[in-house]
Amino acid sequence: MEIIITIVFLFLIGIPLTVLLHETGHGLGAISASTSNAHICLGKWNEKRKPSFQSGKLRFYLRWSYVGFCKWERTNKRQHMTALLGGPLASLLAAGLFLVLAQLISSGGIHTILTGLLYMNVSIFLMTIIPITYPSWLSHYGSRESDGLQLLRLLIKRDASD
């Protein structure tokens, strides 16, 4: 029974939490490198939606969901790269935190949950840092470019706006 509760918890709480951490990383990257506000959305983006809450320049639009987005205002090339890197970096740091916690708590359901969160954050890190265009069947992310592909395009783009 414990494994069923763990799996349900990971699907209902773990995935949205992992997505939210990743998108918050983008937001922190955006506001740390610029004067931009960051809009962190868990769930489908809707321009008419009011923020659930805000903290400084971070505005959170939260609904239970497996998808998320972060939008920021106009940035130059360096600032855009910092914002893009923030998501995968947050996922990698979260994975490291869950690894340490899972090793400190070495048995029971909490260990299994922490290990699941570790794998989820490693997965989102890899799925976003690898430079690809997501396949069209991948729901809200279909045909969008990964953070890694956007970063690669910015790196090879030559212009005077950096």
UniProtKB/TrEMBL annotation:
Tree of life domain: Bacteria
Keywords associated with the record: Membrane, Transmembrane, Transmembrane helix
TM region(s), chain numbering: 81-101, 113-134
Protein name: Peptidase M50 domain-containing protein
